[in-house]
Amino acid sequence: MTAARARGIFIAGTDTGIGKTRVVVGLLRALRDAGVHATGMKPVATGTIQAVSGLINEDVAAISEVSAAEASRADINPYCFNWPVSPHIAAERAGIVIDLAVISRAYARLEACCDVVVVEGTGGWLAPIAAQATMADIAAALQLPVLLVVGMRLGCLNHALLSAQAIAQARAPLIGWIANAIDPAMSALAENVEALQQRLPAPLWAQLPHARDAQHDTQTLTALAALARALLEPRALP
Question: Is the pTM of this model over 0.70?
Answer without folding.
Answer: yes
